[in-house]
Amino acid sequence: MQCPRCFWLDARLKITRPSSPPFNINKTIDELFKKEFDVHRAAGTQHPIMTAGGLTGIVPFRHMVEARSVDIVMIDVARVGGVTQWMKVAGMAEAFNLPVVSHVMPEILVHMVAACPNGLTVEYMPWTRALYEETPAIEKGQLVLGDGPGLGLKFDEKALTRFKA
User: Fold this and answer.
1) Cβ atoms within 10 A of the Cβ of 147, count?
2) Dmax over Cα atoms in the chain, in whole Å?
């Protein structure tokens, strides 16, 4: 990627663009992170990130499933980067024959777990329930998917005003 200003500096003032580093920072971090998972797998210990509240983004999940360091993949939609990233991780887990479970936000994640062939269970923590006019019903210990469009959720405007920061 080049900016017009860099071209102008080069052409007019003969100031050349600095060369790029001999490595790609994303690839380097990716490789280092994988090595860390390998070390912990060989030692039979948990990686510190696994005990510190969950993984962020999809790359750590790839290392985790490749290293076969889990039997069940728990995905937090807020930490992984949204619905699309959640589904990508679920697909990765499926490729390794691993089941997936949700982490919090059952009103949203019930749909995603249901959409995955390897979806196992929905963690039910109704912390955000008060934000919606209506949430999925529970029948015989099971969350029931609604038949409305999309996620079938509508925000409760009074609740949003009440919880506004």
Assistant:
1) 6
2) 75
For domain 24-128, give the fold.
TIM Barrel (3.20.20)
> Measured at the alpha carbon of residue 102, what is the angle toward residues 164 and 39, in degrees to the nearest 5?
115
Tokens of 146: 């609604």
Write down the pTM of the prediction: 0.68
Return d(Cα 91, Cα 94) in angstroms, integer: 5
For the chain, helix (H) and strand (E) counts, in that order, are: 8, 5
Rounded Cα distance, 139 and 41, in Å: 40
The CB density around residue 134, as the number of other CB atoms within 10 Å, is 13
Q: Write out pLDDT tens, residues 101-132.
A: 998 899 999 999 999 999 999 988 888 888 99
Domain ranges of the chain: 24-128
